[in-house]
Amino acid sequence: MSLNDPYADGWARAIGAAVEWLPADRPTLVVVPHPDDEAVMFGGLIARLGRRRAPVRVLAVSDGGAAYPDIADRSALEHDRRNEQRAAIEALGLQVGDVERLGLPDGEIERHESLLVGLIARRAEERGCDQIVAPWELDHHTDHEACGRAALEAAGHLPGRTTLVSGFFWSILREPPTPGLQLRAVPLTQDERVAKSAAIRCHRSQTERPGHERPVLTADELSITGWPFEHYLVRDVD
Predict the structure, then answer these.
(1) In 10 A of CB 45, how many CB atoms?
(2) What is the pLDDT of residues 11-48, one digit of tens each?
(3) In Å, what is the CA distance from 21 to each residue of 18, 142, 179, 185, 210?
(4) What are phi and psi of 193, to 5 degrees?
(5) Which residues 6+ apart lie within 8 Å of 174 measured at CB?
(6) Which residues of 134-151 are buried (b: 16+ CB within 10 A; e: fewer)?
(7) Whole-angstrom distance between the N-terminal and C-terminal Cα of the chain?
(8) Quick one: CA dihedral 43, 44, 47, 53, positive or negative?
């Protein structure tokens, strides 16, 4: 978020009021709409849980084939992005086997939202995950919002109380914060910040596009990933 961002003041106030929060080292399911979101949105949190040996399962919802509308061969882009995500996951301290690929269509996740609710609930229950990490359901991207809604609904289907940890990216850049939004701040160690940065660099298809107008993720947009905290909305869902 740059000083020229029209929403900088609102987010600065919300972030300034955030209360420090330390996530519990317990079985966690991370719902990732596209390859790169695991690093950009949740990289520090995943690195922390991974290094503390908390069981973490990543649901890779789509393979990201719609990132560039002018690319006709989506399968080639999906192949590259899957490889990038594998490298990023390892940079964050997890194993490739910790990722389950769902293969839902990039840009159309909301059309499969009911299916996704069931998959999230099933995997969380199978693995005893009472902590779910997902994008905020108002994160200003249809796929992010669909995953956020699905995670919220799935958490309500699980037995007992589930902690829903909702992350932010596009909403910080594209719209003012919701009034009364109460954020939690996860302080990142130097090692966690280094791991997050390394994971983001794995996603070259999204950060570099020689000969074209712009990549999906510009350096200015990615500047918010260098903050010493990650910010979340944390809710207990019964």
Answers:
(1) 24
(2) 999 999 999 999 999 999 999 999 999 999 999 999 99
(3) 9, 28, 21, 6, 40
(4) -65, -40
(5) 7, 140
(6) bbbbbbbbebbbbbbbbb
(7) 34
(8) negative
With beta carbons less than 8 A apart as the criterion, state whether 38 and 45 touch.
no
Measured in residues, the chain has a length of 238
CATH topology of domain 8-237: Rossmann fold (3.40.50)
Report strand pairing: 162-167 vs 28-32: unpaired
d(CA 225, CA 26): 24
- pLDDT 10s digits, 215-238: 999 999 999 999 999 999 999 999
| Amino acid (one-letter) located at 57 | R
With 0.85 as the threshold, say if the pTM is over it. yes
Domain positions in the chain: 8-237
Burial label for 209, CB within 10 Å (0-12, 13-18, 19+), is middle
pLDDT, position 102: 98
